[in-house]
Amino acid sequence: MTAPALTELVAGELAGPIDPRAAAMAEAIARRYGSAARAVLFYGSCLRERALDGLMLDFYLIVSDYRAAFGKSWLAPANRLIPPNVFPFEHDGLIAKYAVLSEADFHRLCGPETLSVSVWARFAQPARLAWAADEAASAAAVGAVARAAPTLLAAARPLFGGREALDLWRTAFALTYSAELRAERKGRAGSVVDADPDRYLRFTGPALVAAGLGEKAEALRPASAAERLSAERLWARRRRAGKALSLLRLAKASGTYAGGIDYLAWKINRHAGTAIELADWQRRWPILGALTLLPRLLRQRAIR
Q1: Phi and psi of 64, rounded to 5°?
Q2: What DSSP line would sit under 74-138, residue for residue?
Q3: In Å, how far are 28, 96, 205, 209, 242 from 215, measured between CA atoms?
Q4: Is the pLDDT at 304 greater than 90, yes or no?
Q5: Closest Cα partner for 85 from 150, 18, 29, 27?
Q6: pLDDT tens digits, residue range 74-100?
Q7: N or C: the chain end with fewer CB closer than 10 Å?
Q8: SS3 assignment, position 232
Q9: CA dist., res. 271 & res. 268, Å (int)
Q10: DSSP per residue over 187-225, as a string?
Protein backbone atom coordinates (compact mmCIF):
# COMPACT_ATOMS: atom_id res chain seq x y z
CA MET A 1 0.00 0.00 0.00
CA THR A 2 1.29 3.46 -0.90
CA ALA A 3 1.96 5.81 2.00
CA PRO A 4 -0.11 9.03 1.87
CA ALA A 5 3.03 11.18 2.07
CA LEU A 6 4.45 9.49 -1.02
CA THR A 7 1.21 9.88 -2.95
CA GLU A 8 1.24 13.61 -2.16
CA LEU A 9 4.87 13.92 -3.28
CA VAL A 10 4.15 12.10 -6.53
CA ALA A 11 1.01 14.13 -7.21
CA GLY A 12 2.94 17.35 -6.64
CA GLU A 13 5.79 16.31 -8.89
CA LEU A 14 3.52 15.11 -11.70
CA ALA A 15 1.70 18.46 -11.55
CA GLY A 16 4.94 20.40 -11.86
CA PRO A 17 5.74 22.89 -14.63
CA ILE A 18 6.22 21.64 -18.17
CA ASP A 19 7.46 23.29 -21.36
CA PRO A 20 4.36 24.52 -23.25
CA ARG A 21 5.57 22.83 -26.45
CA ALA A 22 5.86 19.49 -24.66
CA ALA A 23 2.37 19.97 -23.22
CA ALA A 24 0.99 20.74 -26.69
CA MET A 25 2.67 17.62 -28.05
CA ALA A 26 1.16 15.49 -25.27
CA GLU A 27 -2.31 16.84 -26.08
CA ALA A 28 -1.76 16.11 -29.78
CA ILE A 29 -0.76 12.52 -28.99
CA ALA A 30 -3.91 12.09 -26.89
CA ARG A 31 -6.10 13.48 -29.69
CA ARG A 32 -4.97 10.68 -31.99
CA TYR A 33 -6.69 8.15 -29.74
CA GLY A 34 -9.93 9.97 -28.97
CA SER A 35 -11.89 8.67 -26.00
CA ALA A 36 -9.40 5.78 -25.48
CA ALA A 37 -6.74 8.22 -24.26
CA ARG A 38 -6.61 8.53 -20.47
CA ALA A 39 -3.29 10.23 -19.66
CA VAL A 40 0.02 11.28 -21.19
CA LEU A 41 3.17 11.34 -19.07
CA PHE A 42 6.34 13.21 -20.03
CA TYR A 43 9.58 11.75 -18.66
CA GLY A 44 13.29 11.40 -19.36
CA SER A 45 16.27 13.71 -19.70
CA CYS A 46 14.30 16.29 -21.74
CA LEU A 47 12.50 17.29 -18.53
CA ARG A 48 15.73 19.05 -17.53
CA GLU A 49 16.31 20.73 -20.90
CA ARG A 50 15.33 24.28 -21.79
CA ALA A 51 15.98 23.96 -25.54
CA LEU A 52 13.99 21.02 -26.95
CA ASP A 53 14.78 21.46 -30.64
CA GLY A 54 16.81 18.54 -31.99
CA LEU A 55 16.01 16.34 -28.99
CA MET A 56 13.85 13.22 -28.83
CA LEU A 57 11.09 13.75 -26.25
CA ASP A 58 9.75 10.76 -24.34
CA PHE A 59 6.10 10.16 -23.47
CA TYR A 60 3.89 7.37 -22.18
CA LEU A 61 0.32 7.34 -23.45
CA ILE A 62 -2.06 5.58 -21.07
CA VAL A 63 -5.22 4.23 -22.70
CA SER A 64 -8.39 2.66 -21.36
CA ASP A 65 -7.65 -0.62 -23.18
CA TYR A 66 -5.85 -1.75 -26.32
CA ARG A 67 -8.91 -2.64 -28.37
CA ALA A 68 -10.32 0.85 -27.77
CA ALA A 69 -6.97 2.35 -28.82
CA PHE A 70 -6.20 0.20 -31.89
CA GLY A 71 -9.48 -1.40 -32.92
CA LYS A 72 -9.08 -4.79 -34.61
CA SER A 73 -5.51 -4.09 -35.73
CA TRP A 74 -2.68 -6.50 -34.86
CA LEU A 75 -1.34 -3.65 -32.70
CA ALA A 76 -3.86 -4.43 -29.94
CA PRO A 77 -2.70 -8.03 -29.24
CA ALA A 78 0.93 -6.99 -29.80
CA ASN A 79 0.60 -4.31 -27.12
CA ARG A 80 -1.03 -6.77 -24.76
CA LEU A 81 1.52 -9.57 -25.29
CA ILE A 82 4.72 -7.47 -25.44
CA PRO A 83 3.96 -4.10 -23.83
CA PRO A 84 4.44 -1.35 -24.73
CA ASN A 85 4.00 -0.46 -28.40
CA VAL A 86 6.26 2.47 -29.31
CA PHE A 87 5.58 5.03 -32.04
CA PRO A 88 7.35 8.12 -33.41
CA PHE A 89 5.61 11.49 -33.36
CA GLU A 90 6.24 14.99 -34.68
CA HIS A 91 4.48 18.18 -33.66
CA ASP A 92 5.29 21.86 -34.02
CA GLY A 93 8.85 21.15 -35.14
CA LEU A 94 9.62 18.76 -32.27
CA ILE A 95 10.15 15.01 -32.48
CA ALA A 96 9.20 12.42 -29.89
CA LYS A 97 8.46 8.80 -29.28
CA TYR A 98 5.60 7.57 -27.17
CA ALA A 99 4.92 4.20 -25.58
CA VAL A 100 1.38 2.92 -25.14
CA LEU A 101 0.11 1.10 -22.05
CA SER A 102 -3.37 0.40 -20.76
CA GLU A 103 -4.29 1.75 -17.33
CA ALA A 104 -4.25 -1.81 -15.97
CA ASP A 105 -0.82 -2.60 -17.43
CA PHE A 106 0.63 0.72 -16.28
CA HIS A 107 -0.49 0.02 -12.72
CA ARG A 108 0.89 -3.54 -12.86
CA LEU A 109 4.22 -2.64 -14.47
CA CYS A 110 4.91 0.06 -11.86
CA GLY A 111 4.78 -2.63 -9.14
CA PRO A 112 6.76 -5.63 -7.89
CA GLU A 113 4.57 -8.24 -9.58
CA THR A 114 6.56 -8.00 -12.83
CA LEU A 115 10.09 -9.18 -13.70
CA SER A 116 10.45 -6.29 -16.15
CA VAL A 117 12.13 -3.27 -14.57
CA SER A 118 11.45 -0.98 -17.52
CA VAL A 119 8.42 0.93 -16.24
CA TRP A 120 9.06 1.09 -12.49
CA ALA A 121 12.68 2.11 -13.04
CA ARG A 122 11.62 5.00 -15.25
CA PHE A 123 8.78 6.24 -13.08
CA ALA A 124 10.83 6.13 -9.89
CA GLN A 125 12.48 9.10 -11.61
CA PRO A 126 10.89 12.52 -12.17
CA ALA A 127 7.96 12.74 -14.59
CA ARG A 128 5.11 15.10 -15.43
CA LEU A 129 1.46 14.39 -16.08
CA ALA A 130 1.31 16.38 -19.30
CA TRP A 131 -2.33 15.63 -20.10
CA ALA A 132 -5.22 13.78 -18.45
CA ALA A 133 -8.73 13.04 -19.67
CA ASP A 134 -10.35 13.76 -16.31
CA GLU A 135 -9.78 13.64 -12.54
CA ALA A 136 -10.20 9.87 -12.41
CA ALA A 137 -7.50 9.41 -15.06
CA SER A 138 -5.20 11.78 -13.18
CA ALA A 139 -5.75 9.93 -9.89
CA ALA A 140 -5.09 6.57 -11.56
CA ALA A 141 -1.82 7.87 -13.02
CA VAL A 142 -0.70 9.21 -9.64
CA GLY A 143 -1.58 5.92 -7.96
CA ALA A 144 0.40 3.89 -10.50
CA VAL A 145 3.48 6.14 -10.42
CA ALA A 146 3.47 6.11 -6.61
CA ARG A 147 4.14 2.35 -6.76
CA ALA A 148 7.38 2.76 -8.70
CA ALA A 149 9.83 4.16 -6.13
CA PRO A 150 8.89 1.69 -3.35
CA THR A 151 9.25 -1.17 -5.85
CA LEU A 152 12.69 0.08 -6.90
CA LEU A 153 14.05 0.54 -3.38
CA ALA A 154 12.64 -2.75 -2.07
CA ALA A 155 14.25 -4.61 -4.98
CA ALA A 156 17.64 -2.99 -4.31
CA ARG A 157 17.67 -3.18 -0.50
CA PRO A 158 19.15 -6.71 -0.13
CA LEU A 159 22.12 -5.73 -2.32
CA PHE A 160 22.66 -2.32 -0.73
CA GLY A 161 26.01 -2.15 1.04
CA GLY A 162 26.23 1.57 1.69
CA ARG A 163 25.02 3.82 4.45
CA GLU A 164 23.64 6.91 2.71
CA ALA A 165 20.24 7.37 1.13
CA LEU A 166 21.60 8.53 -2.22
CA ASP A 167 23.78 5.42 -2.42
CA LEU A 168 20.65 3.28 -2.14
CA TRP A 169 19.18 5.04 -5.19
CA ARG A 170 22.47 4.74 -7.09
CA THR A 171 22.60 1.02 -6.31
CA ALA A 172 18.98 0.62 -7.40
CA PHE A 173 19.40 2.38 -10.74
CA ALA A 174 22.66 0.55 -11.48
CA LEU A 175 20.78 -2.74 -11.00
CA THR A 176 17.93 -1.68 -13.29
CA TYR A 177 20.32 -0.44 -15.98
CA SER A 178 21.99 -3.86 -15.93
CA ALA A 179 18.61 -5.52 -16.52
CA GLU A 180 18.03 -3.95 -19.94
CA LEU A 181 20.00 -3.50 -23.15
CA ARG A 182 21.30 0.01 -22.52
CA ALA A 183 23.35 2.39 -24.65
CA GLU A 184 24.37 4.80 -21.87
CA ARG A 185 27.95 5.22 -20.73
CA LYS A 186 29.14 3.62 -17.51
CA GLY A 187 28.12 5.77 -14.55
CA ARG A 188 24.86 6.91 -16.13
CA ALA A 189 22.84 5.33 -13.31
CA GLY A 190 24.65 7.48 -10.75
CA SER A 191 24.26 10.63 -12.82
CA VAL A 192 20.47 10.21 -12.74
CA VAL A 193 20.59 10.68 -8.96
CA ASP A 194 23.29 13.35 -9.03
CA ALA A 195 21.21 15.48 -11.41
CA ASP A 196 18.71 16.20 -8.58
CA PRO A 197 19.92 14.76 -5.25
CA ASP A 198 17.48 16.85 -3.19
CA ARG A 199 14.57 15.25 -5.03
CA TYR A 200 15.75 11.76 -4.18
CA LEU A 201 16.37 12.70 -0.56
CA ARG A 202 12.78 14.00 -0.32
CA PHE A 203 11.43 10.77 -1.76
CA THR A 204 13.57 8.37 0.29
CA GLY A 205 11.62 8.32 3.56
CA PRO A 206 8.10 8.15 2.09
CA ALA A 207 9.19 5.50 -0.47
CA LEU A 208 10.83 3.36 2.21
CA VAL A 209 7.72 3.61 4.40
CA ALA A 210 5.52 2.62 1.46
CA ALA A 211 7.81 -0.36 0.86
CA GLY A 212 7.59 -1.40 4.53
CA LEU A 213 11.30 -0.76 5.12
CA GLY A 214 11.22 1.93 7.79
CA GLU A 215 11.95 5.61 7.30
CA LYS A 216 15.72 5.98 6.78
CA ALA A 217 18.16 4.28 4.44
CA GLU A 218 20.84 4.68 7.10
CA ALA A 219 18.78 2.49 9.47
CA LEU A 220 18.32 -0.41 7.06
CA ARG A 221 19.58 -3.61 8.61
CA PRO A 222 22.13 -5.56 6.55
CA ALA A 223 20.59 -8.32 4.48
CA SER A 224 21.25 -11.87 5.60
CA ALA A 225 23.26 -14.18 3.39
CA ALA A 226 20.07 -15.98 2.40
CA GLU A 227 18.30 -12.70 1.52
CA ARG A 228 21.26 -11.54 -0.53
CA LEU A 229 21.49 -14.85 -2.42
CA SER A 230 17.75 -14.77 -3.14
CA ALA A 231 18.01 -11.18 -4.40
CA GLU A 232 21.00 -12.00 -6.61
CA ARG A 233 19.06 -14.86 -8.20
CA LEU A 234 16.03 -12.63 -8.75
CA TRP A 235 18.15 -9.92 -10.37
CA ALA A 236 19.75 -12.55 -12.62
CA ARG A 237 16.23 -13.53 -13.74
CA ARG A 238 15.38 -9.87 -14.29
CA ARG A 239 18.49 -9.42 -16.43
CA ARG A 240 17.71 -12.45 -18.59
CA ALA A 241 14.06 -11.47 -18.96
CA GLY A 242 14.81 -7.78 -19.52
CA LYS A 243 17.35 -8.30 -22.28
CA ALA A 244 15.19 -10.87 -24.03
CA LEU A 245 12.24 -8.47 -23.80
CA SER A 246 14.39 -5.65 -25.21
CA LEU A 247 15.10 -7.77 -28.30
CA LEU A 248 11.41 -8.65 -28.71
CA ARG A 249 10.45 -4.97 -28.45
CA LEU A 250 13.11 -4.10 -31.03
CA ALA A 251 11.67 -6.68 -33.43
CA LYS A 252 8.13 -5.42 -32.85
CA ALA A 253 9.22 -1.81 -33.37
CA SER A 254 10.10 -2.59 -36.98
CA GLY A 255 6.35 -2.72 -37.58
CA THR A 256 5.37 0.33 -35.52
CA TYR A 257 8.34 2.66 -35.94
CA ALA A 258 9.37 3.81 -39.42
CA GLY A 259 13.09 4.48 -39.36
CA GLY A 260 13.41 2.68 -36.04
CA ILE A 261 16.89 1.36 -36.76
CA ASP A 262 18.10 4.90 -37.55
CA TYR A 263 16.72 6.04 -34.20
CA LEU A 264 18.45 3.10 -32.49
CA ALA A 265 21.79 4.04 -34.10
CA TRP A 266 21.30 7.72 -33.21
CA LYS A 267 20.54 6.92 -29.59
CA ILE A 268 23.53 4.59 -29.19
CA ASN A 269 25.88 7.12 -30.81
CA ARG A 270 24.53 9.90 -28.58
CA HIS A 271 24.69 8.01 -25.30
CA ALA A 272 27.68 5.71 -25.82
CA GLY A 273 29.91 8.00 -27.87
CA THR A 274 30.07 5.59 -30.83
CA ALA A 275 29.97 6.36 -34.56
CA ILE A 276 27.66 3.69 -35.96
CA GLU A 277 26.87 4.02 -39.68
CA LEU A 278 24.09 1.94 -41.19
CA ALA A 279 24.17 0.19 -44.54
CA ASP A 280 21.23 0.51 -46.91
CA TRP A 281 20.37 -3.19 -46.50
CA GLN A 282 20.10 -2.72 -42.71
CA ARG A 283 17.46 -0.06 -43.28
CA ARG A 284 15.56 -2.32 -45.71
CA TRP A 285 15.66 -5.23 -43.27
CA PRO A 286 15.65 -3.50 -39.84
CA ILE A 287 15.14 -6.60 -37.67
CA LEU A 288 18.03 -8.46 -39.32
CA GLY A 289 20.07 -5.25 -39.40
CA ALA A 290 19.60 -4.65 -35.67
CA LEU A 291 20.46 -8.25 -34.84
CA THR A 292 23.66 -8.12 -36.90
CA LEU A 293 24.71 -4.96 -35.05
CA LEU A 294 24.21 -6.58 -31.65
CA PRO A 295 27.42 -8.70 -31.38
CA ARG A 296 29.59 -5.73 -32.41
CA LEU A 297 27.88 -3.40 -29.96
CA LEU A 298 28.28 -5.90 -27.13
CA ARG A 299 32.00 -6.37 -27.93
CA GLN A 300 32.50 -2.59 -27.91
CA ARG A 301 30.41 -2.33 -24.74
CA ALA A 302 28.29 0.28 -26.51
CA ILE A 303 25.31 -1.56 -25.03
CA ARG A 304 25.30 -3.71 -21.90
Answers
A1: -65, -45
A2: THHHHHHHSPPEEEEEEETTEEEEEEEEEHHHHHHHTSTT-S--HHHHHHTS-EEEEEESSHHHH
A3: 41, 38, 5, 6, 30
A4: no
A5: 29
A6: 999 999 999 999 898 999 999 999 999
A7: N
A8: helix
A9: 5
A10: THHHHHHHTSHHHHHHHHHHHHHHTTS-S-GGGPPPPPH
Task: Give the C-alpha separation, 7 to 69, whole Å.
Answer: 28
pTM: 0.85
SS3 161: coil
**Over the stretch 20-31, which tens digit does the pLDDT of each residue have?**
999 999 999 999
Whether the Cβ atoms of residue 97 and residue 87 lie closer than 8 Å to each other: yes
The full DSSP string for 240-291 is HHHHHHHHHHHHHHHHH-TTHHHHHHHHHHHHH-------HHHHHSHHHHHH
Reference 11, options 120, 117, 192, 144; nearest CA is 144
Work out whether the CA dihedral 62, 68, 71, 72 comes out positive or negative.
positive
Q: What sign for the dihedral angle of Cα 62, 64, 69, 75?
A: positive
**Domains in the chain with CATH codes:** 4-239 (3.30.460.10), 240-299 (no CATH)
